[in-house]
Specification:
Helix content of chain B: 25-40%
Radius of gyration of chain B: 27 Å
Strand content of chain B: 15-25%
Helix content of chain A: 25-40%
Oligomer: heterodimer
CATH superfamily of chain A: Thiamin diphosphate (ThDP)-binding fold, Pyr/PP domains
Largest sheet of chain A: 8 strands, mixed
Number of helices of chain A: 12
Order of helices and strands of chain A: HEHEHEHHEEEHEHEHEEEEHEHHH
CATH architecture of chain A: 3-Layer(aba) Sandwich
Number of strands of chain B: 24
Radius of gyration of chain A: 21 Å
CATH class of chain A: Alpha Beta
Shape of chain B: globular
Number of strands of chain A: 13
Strand order of the largest sheet of chain A: 2-1-3-4-8-7-13-9
Distance between the termini of chain A: 65 Å
Low-confidence stretches of chain B: none
CATH topology of chain A: Rossmann fold
Low-confidence stretches of chain A: none
Strand order of the largest sheet of chain B: 3-2-1-4-16
Largest sheet of chain B: 5 strands, parallel
Shape of chain A: globular
């Protein structure tokens, strides 16, 4: 474990965002994970995304459960809110926090054990309910903290570090999230920040349940020949369907694209997702098409990455429940205790 | 690699030497980070000896060096100010213990005789390098004590006499014969005295004069700067008038004005022709002068000495301004305002120094250029008479002590090679010692934690006290604690980031942890284009890119050396050991067996 602090000095030309903050201001503590862990790259991508979006650190809440992945919120955005919950229970805590204060940006960070094993039910229901959040699974296909057993997302036929073959079927969290109604679904790879950073930015600016499955090689227990979650394997089998740019406000298109090459999706909040197609027949707004494509490619052993599905008209739990527009902590006593007359009216309606 | 950048050859000794900006900038290439670490470790004697071997006069240079290392220091690019390298050198000198046992042993006589003309820093360096090898070295000087300009021109309040005596003494103890109070008047004669080689280190002994109206009449109150300083040094001059004008903007002018303040000058003014910014004096010397209530008046061109029947009363100056002409050249043009009269009792003329070789006959076969300078090889220091070598200010005009030392080392190498029958144009490569600093997974044998402290100021003696005594040293030097803290600011730039592409798995851990955004994995390209698309743009073209190919994805690793903190976090976070921190100790080869091939 690195025990010196990361030096405060930074590159003299380090740019500042609209808030006057540098990327370094979005960092957390130095990681205690194994050197080379894919999760650290995901933390770096989250830092980059939040900086580029100009998020005020105190307007973001990072929630996690238990596991290597769930330790990472300590390693980014040290000035944000955070909650390290019980194993697999991050989605419920996040849902509760979101209901109490809808104005914060919610970032759920979880792993394959936390979300596909002990917390599978929690994962499913938070997506199904449509909680407005960015749910990132740092998926290494292995139980790293307990020294390398297969996890629920390990592919059937993949091999452990000692050469034992996995005989059980793996859970595809992307397929589940699509089926359960996530309105923004992506998959990426910790070793490809060019793809990952825009995906996280898109998720953070998306209004609705956004889910990103990030394959994140475990250098200690799952980066060997025979693994399907190693750096080499993912690089060889990575099939990116598109490249995403997230455009805030009305920035004009500066690059030249061939006709049909770019598809723009405008979201509720006015942000634009600009998708550069890498596969002509892939339409990221077609949920059934996306699900089919994923199945086909999976059968061929390919890992489909990119923004796989987005619903520009997405709604969230608050919209559906018609809750108060303001966070609970901003409501006055008068609003919270409307008095005997209001109670009588409610009672009368129930008779 | 096609059209891309060539992968960096880190086996070239110069590659990592350049990364150690201070050492690269130092004419003598003193391994600065090495001795700074020793100071931090309170190993002052060892730190002193690292210096002594390389620059011969650590105590003297620790007070008076022009410090080309400091503007080069990487620390100055990552925060406000460079490490106070020069003053740390003094910490080593002030706190060392007796070093006599550590001085080199003296080899039996090899039967060869060397004459060094002048006993300044260049000649003394030659003597120090050659005497222990068994050469019989004779050092000649017209003055009765050795040291040259170190002793005659640098005021005592900057450099106490004891420091000079001590460091000149170490050289004298190595056995050269000091033939003092013996001025060499004829090189022709000296060439007949059986010397195998002659080294000329006679400096630039002539101060430039100003031939203006009134110069002759008021001569009694007009003094040439370096001669006057020398008279003060040898205590022939002990006072000066109350109102003094110092002409010139170099370090000699700064020494003159500050000395004048101590000899009775109450209103001392420095007057320069050009702008304050254009002055040749080091910024810190200007600061020190102004701190002693000496105004620096600029854009005034001296026009005449005003006198009353031979008694100097003042000087007139033409007011000028700087203008750029059609070719963009900067010229000083009169403003048209009336001339300015500045009253004074004495004038010190410090407008430059010149070489002077009246003692070298022009019919002995030595070639001189059109400026009257001997033709001398840049690296070999050899003149057109093969066994006569030059160094210091005598070689290429006025520079400074550390250049004189560097010339002395080069000349000593040349002499040693020449007298061993070697080809002196083939210069010996430096010795390079590479030591991995890795001790454990996250343990290094250097202190990789970066201190956030800003540069410490050297305490000064109280002004009221120091202005009364020309011998009272103004700077008091760092004490051990502040010396330690300042030493901790050093970034250990000699501990290099060495990359082994074949074990890299491209996990990005180094990219993510690097506090300075130095490292990028990207597609190969031309260097100029590559520089624009790195993690942070590499705009400092004086600093090289470290490019490595042979990665699994076919990309290249590019590290911009410019602002690397050498904190080793890339190596700490590397899962495969593709990054290692290795100390490259670069040791410039000096005269002796290492510079010879047989």
């Amino acid at each position: 474990m690195t025990y010196i602090l990361k030096p405060k000095l930074h590159h003299p030309s380090l740019p500042k965002n609209d808030l006057g903050l540098t990327r370094r201001d979005y960092e957390g503590r130095v990681s205690t994970l194994c050197a080379g862990c894919g999760h650290d790259s995901i933390s770096a991508a989250i830092i980059q995304s939040a900086w580029e979006l100009g998020i005020q650190p105190h307007r973001l809440a990072k929630m996690s459960g238990i596991g290597c992945s769930s330790k990472t919120p300590d390693y980014f955005m040290g000035q944000s809110h955070g909650f390290n919950s019980v194993h697999g229970r991050m989605p419920s805590v996040l849902t509760g926090a979101n209901l109490a204060n809808r104005e914060l940006i919610y970032l759920g960070v979880s792993g394959d054990g936390d979300s596909a094993s002990i917390g599978l039910g929690q994962f499913a229901h938070s997506i199904r309910r449509g909680v407005n959040m960015s749910y990132i699974v740092e998926n290494n296909g292995v139980y790293g903290l307990t020294k390398g057993q297969f996890s629920a997302t390990s592919d059937k036929g993949s091999k452990s570090k000692k050469g034992v073959e996995n005989t059980e079927n793996g859970i595809d969290l992307v397929a589940l999230a699509l089926q359960l109604g996530a309105t923004y679904v992506g998959r990426s790879f910790s070793g490809d920040k060019e793809q990952l950073v825009p995906l996280i930015k898109g998720a953070m600016s998306h209004h609705g349940p956004a889910f990103i499955d990030v394959i994140s090689p475990c250098v200690a227990f799952n980066n060997h020949a025979g693994s399907t979650k190693s750096f080499d394997y993912v690089r060889e089998h990575n099939e990116a369907v598109n490249r995403l740019d997230v455009i805030l406000g009305r920035a004009p298109i500066t690059a030249d694209y061939r006709p049909g090459e770019v598809r723009e999706v405008t979201q509720h909040d006015g942000s634009t997702l600009r998708l550069r197609k890498l596969h002509d027949d892939y339409d990221a707004t077609n949920k059934i098409g996306a699900a089919n494509y994923l199945q086909e490619r999976h059968a061929q052993g390919e890992i489909v990455t990119g923004l796989l599905y987005v619903d520009p008209e997405a709604t969230d739990l608050h919209d559906r429940l018609d809750t108060t527009k303001r966070p609970l902590n901003q409501l006055s006593t008068a609003e919270l205790t409307p008095g005997a007359a209001a109670l009588a009216k409610i009672n009368a309606a129930l008779r | 690699m096609g059209s891309g950048v060539q992968a960096t050859d880190i086996n070239r000794p110069d590659y990592f030497h350049k990364v150690v900006d201070c050492q690269w900038a130092c004419p003598a290439h003193t391994p600065v980070p090495e001795y700074i670490r020793l100071i931090a470790d309170q190993r002052y004697t060892d730190a002193y000896m690292v210096n002594w071997k390389s620059n011969v006069f650590p105590g003297i240079l620790g007070r008076t060096c022009d410090r080309p290392c400091e503007p080069a220091c990487r620390r100055g690019r990552v925060e406000e100010e460079p490490v106070a390298i020069c003053r740390l050198k003094r910490v080593a000198a002030d706190n060392k213990s007796d070093i006599t046992a550590l001085l080199p042993g003296i080899a039996p006589p090899n039967g060869k005789k060397i004459a060094c003309v002048g006993a300044g820093p260049a000649s003394l360096t030659v003597a120090r390098d050659l005497a222990p090898l068994g050469y019989e070295v004779h050092v000649y000087d017209g003055d009765k004590r050795a040291g040259g300009m170190i002793r005659s021109q640098i005021p005592r309040f900057r450099l106490p006499e004891e420091v000079i005596d001590e460091e000149v003494g170490y050289i004298a103890a190595l056995g050269p014969e000091m033939r003092l109070s013996k001025r060499v008047d004829s090189l022709k004669q000296l060439l007949t005295e059986g010397y195998d080689a002659i080294f000329v280190g006679t400096g630039a002994p002539r101060g430039r004069d100003l031939d203006l109206p009134g110069r002759q009449e008021a001569a009694a109150s007009i003094h040439i700067g370096i001669d006057w300083l020398s008279n003060v040094s040898f205590e022939h001059t002990t006072k000066i008038g109350k109102r003094v004008i110092v002409l010139g903007g170099g370090n000699t002018a700064m020494d003159c004005c500050r000395t004048a303040r101590r000899l009775g000058g109450e209103e001392v003014k420095v007057v320069v022709r050009s702008g304050f910014e254009e002055m040749k004096a080091s910024p810190w010397e200007k600061e020190d002068a102004m701190h002693e209530d000496i105004p620096i008046l600029n854009y005034l061109v001296p026009k005449s000495f005003v006198h009353d029947n031979g008694k100097l009363t003042g000087m007139t100056f033409e007011k000028v301004k700087a203008e750029k002409d059609a070719n963009g050249r900067r010229n000083l043009v009169p403003t048209g305002e009336p001339d300015q009269l500045i009253e004074c009792d004495d004038v010190l003329v410090a407008v430059g120094q010149e070489n002077s070789f009246p003692w070298i006959e022009r019919d002995i076969g030595m070639e001189f250029d059109k400026w009257g300078m001997p033709v001398v090889g840049q690296e070999t220091m050899q003149s057109t008479i093969p066994n006569v070598f030059f160094g210091g200010d005598a070689a290429f005009g006025p520079k400074n002590i550390i250049w004189a030392v560097a010339h002395g080392h080069s000349a000593a190498v040349s002499i040693d090679m020449f007298l061993s029958g070697e080809d002196i144009s083939v210069r010996p490569a430096p010795g390079v010692t590479v030591i991995s600093q890795k001790m454990g997974i996250h343990e290094w044998s250097y202190d990789n934690d970066i201190a956030n402290d800003t540069r410490y100021k050297v305490p000064h003696r109280d002004k009221a006290v120091s202005l009364k005594d020309v011998k009272a040293e103004v700077e008091l030097g760092f004490d051990q604690l502040v010396g330690f803290k300042e030493a901790q600011r050093c970034l250990n730039c000699d501990v290099q980031t060495v990359f082994t592409p074949k074990v890299c798995i491209e996990c990005d851990a180094c990219v993510d942890i690097c506090p300075m955004d130095c490292i990028t994995f990207t597609e190969d390209g031309e260097e100029s284009e590559l520089r624009t698309r790195l993690q942070a743009p590499a705009l400092n073209l004086g600093q090289e890119l470290y490019v490595a190919d042979g990665l699994p994805t076919g990309r290249v690793m590019v590290k911009d050396e410019d602002v690397c903190l050498h904190c080793g976090l890339c190596a700490e976070r590397c899962p495969t050991g593709a990054w290692d921190m290795q100390k490259y100790l670069i040791d410039i080869t000096q005269a002796g067996p290492k510079c010879r091939t047989r």
